[in-house]
TrEMBL record:
<keyword id="KW-0808">Transferase</keyword>
<dbReference type="Pfam" id="PF00480">
    <property type="entry name" value="ROK"/>
</dbReference>
<comment type="similarity">
    <text>Belongs to the ROK (NagC/XylR) family.</text>
</comment>
<dbReference type="GO" id="GO:0016301">
    <property type="term" value="F:kinase activity"/>
</dbReference>
<keyword id="KW-0418">Kinase</keyword>
<dbReference type="InterPro" id="IPR043129">
    <property type="entry name" value="ATPase_NBD"/>
</dbReference>
<dbReference type="InterPro" id="IPR000600">
    <property type="entry name" value="ROK"/>
</dbReference>
<protein>
    <submittedName>
        <fullName>Glucokinase</fullName>
    </submittedName>
</protein>
Length: 301
């Protein structure tokens, strides 16, 4: 069975896998993201070499999912603030080094399409990966809306609090400034809390008022953003992914209640966490790789 090399490039880690056409991960390799644009690219090359060595057969393609603004037709990362990439022709550069066909796409959009492939839902579908940053895949009629410049789906930078807290993007009051994993941890520490990770903050919910306060702010920011998406798209489902979605009911329950309270005359769409879980980004990247060489994968969950 043909396999692809798939890498989900994130602000804190590169998550790689050798994936077959059924969506099975034959080998998994992760490494932390080194800071700085060229260091990240070097890191990515090393990871691809490691994955190729672990593959059971010669991979047919490489699929890369990255955050930021991505021109998928040319495989160019126009701007990725968390990675320090600007106008990087990533596809052609990786095709040179790997000798394989490469597809570069937006991480959230790719993961959203992979998620919808196994969800069986029809109609509009919203996938919101919440990790170091936040984006959204708006899947309408089976394809993810990419926008005229590849910048669609920047849900994390929808402003929900005018004159709110500064966001690394330069705006104020973005969803991401409150609800991203990095923001939850930063805001918890700014209030005197000591925690090594966002997961630790979540573990203290119900026992630590500072954790509760910061989490409530995150939920509120997300709910305000999702209210807008609900009004615009009337989605069949809203699916939350990324590391923060690992909070499960501690995220879903208050979020559903908040969203409901913001909707006076309609029900909120069903909310759930991603079926692929932490794998959604890698499976999305694999989907890009298979599509690059005209293979329609039959992912099974
Ligand atoms: Zn922002």
């Amino acid at each position: 069975m043909s396999v692809v090399l798939a890498v989900d490039v994130g602000g804190t880690g590169l998550k790689g896998a050798v994936v077959d056409a059924r969506g099975r991960e034959v080998a998994v390799r992760d490494r932390p993201t080194r800071s700085g644009g060229s260091a990240v690219e070097e890191n990515l090359r090393e990871l691809l070499a490691e994955l190729a060595a672990a593959a059971p057969s010669r991979p047919v393609a490489v699929g890369i999912g990255t955050p930021g603004t991505v021109e998928e037709a040319s495989g160019t990362v126009v701007y990725a603030s968390n990675l320090g990439w600007r106008n990087l022709p990533l596809r052609s550069r990786l095709e040179e080094t790997t000798g394989l066909p490469v597809a570069v796409g937006h991480d959230g959009r790719a993961a959203g399409r992979a998620e919808q492939l196994v969800s069986g839902t029809h109609g509009s579908f919203v996938f919101v990966p919440i990790g170091t940053g936040i984006s959204a895949a708006l899947v309408v009629a089976g394809s993810a809306v990419s926008g005229v410049s590849g910048a669609a789906g920047e849900f994390g930078h929808v402003v929900v609090h005018p004159d709110g807290e500064p966001c690394p993007c330069g705006q104020r009051g973005c969803v991401e400034a409150y609800a991203a994993g990095a923001a939850v941890l930063r805001r918890y520490r700014a209030r005197g809390g000591t925690a090594a990770s966002t997961v630790e903050v979540v573990q203290r919910l119900g026992a630590d008022p500072v954790a509760d306060e910061v989490w409530d702010d995150a939920v509120r920011a997300l709910a305000l953003g999702l209210q807008g998406l609900t009004m615009l798209l009337d989605p069949a489902e809203i699916v939350l992914g990324g590391g923060v979605s690992g909070a499960g009911p501690r995220l879903l329950d208050p979020l559903e209640a908040r969203l409901r309270s913001l909707l006076a005359w309609r029900e909120p769409p069903p909310l759930r966490t991603a079926r692929w879980g932490a794998r959604a980004g890698r499976i999305g990247a694999a989907l890009l790789g298979f599509e690059r060489v005209g293979i329609e994968p039959a992912f099974e969950f």
